[in-house]
Amino acid sequence: KAGVTQTPRYLIKTRGQQVTLSCSPISGHRSVSWYQQTPGQGLQFLFEYFSETQRNKGNFPGRFSGRQFSNSRSEMNVSTLELGDSALYLCASSLGDRATTEAFFGQGTRLTVV
Amino acid sequence: SQQGEEDPQALSIQEGENATMNCSYKTSINNLQWYRQNSGRGLVHLILIRSNEREKHSGRLRVTLDTSKKSSSLLITASRAADTASYFCATGLIKAAGNKLTFGGGTRVLVKP
């Protein structure tokens, strides 16, 4: 069974640009969550999608957005990039509801904003 | 704010020794999960313990949960150099809908050969 796949693995962008990251969950998983990891703030929840609907949102500005497609694949978009957006972005897929089952993470996308 | 706080922040041990790390949290949970992360890569799920469980084992891992103290511990027995990684606890909250996990700050474990 294939794991969670995130693309691309690495990205370098310039301030002011926008970026789109992709996540393909484990087959059969309908929940996809996104997290940002930085040395200063640790792992922070961005948002969760379930059956194409955003179910939860963390405390991030509106520049961070996402969507989920009918095949459960998800994308997140960051517009008007800032230096502070440099981070490892992790995607997790889950089978169950209400954090009652394991979440499986992808290898992440390392975003560097210069 | 982070739900979980982990202790210690860093741990250095010799191969073969046991490693113990603790996690405390603030509000009622559905379950608590432990993850491992190697050098800025993805998180690997280690073990999930439900709020009605007190102890769980998986190979060389032993997790305990004390809901009255709002704390959990992860014990790695007979550590190996390959166990060198950061370990995170994550909680799924009872009052939260969906699969949102709240992570602790992590414990960096160094196992010296």
Query: How many angstroms separate the termini of chain A?
Result: 37 Å
Helix content of chain A: under 10%
Global geometry of chain A = globular
User: How do the helices and strands follow one another from N- to C-terminus of chain A?
Assistant: EEEEEEEEEEE
How many strand units of chain B? 11
Mean pLDDT of chain A: 93
Most strands sheet of chain A: 7 strands, mixed
How much helix, percentage-wise, in residues of chain B?
under 10%
Strand segment count of chain A:
11
Q: Shape of chain B from CA axes?
A: globular
Q: Give the largest chain-chain interface (CB within 8 Å).
A: A-B, 32 and 29 residues
Distance between the termini of chain B: 37 Å
Descriptive labels:
heterodimer; A: 114 residues; mainly beta; 11 strands; B: 113 residues; six-stranded mixed beta sheet; five-stranded antiparallel beta sheet
Molecular structure report:
The complex is a heterodimer of chains A (114) and B (113). Chain A has strands at residues 5-7, 10-13, 19-24, 31-38, 42-50, 53-57, 64-68, 74-78, 87-94, 103-105, 109-113. Chain A is mostly beta strands. In chain A, the strands form 2 sheets. In chain A, strands 2, 4, 5, 6, 9, 10 and 11 form a 7-stranded mixed beta sheet that branches. Chain A has a 4-stranded antiparallel beta sheet with strand order 1-3-8-7, with no helix packed on it. Chain B is an all-beta fold. Chain B has no helices and 11 strands. Chain B has strands at residues 5-7, 10-14, 19-24, 29-37, 43-50, 55-58, 61-66, 71-76, 85-93, 102-103, 107-112. In chain B, strands 2, 4, 5, 9, 10 and 11 form a 6-stranded mixed beta sheet that branches. Chain B has a 5-stranded antiparallel beta sheet with strand order 1-3-8-7-6, with no helix packed on it. In chain B, strand 9 and strand 10 (102-103) form a beta hairpin. Chains A and B meet through strand 4, strand 5, strand 9 and strand 10 of A and strand 4, strand 5, strand 9 and strand 10 of B.
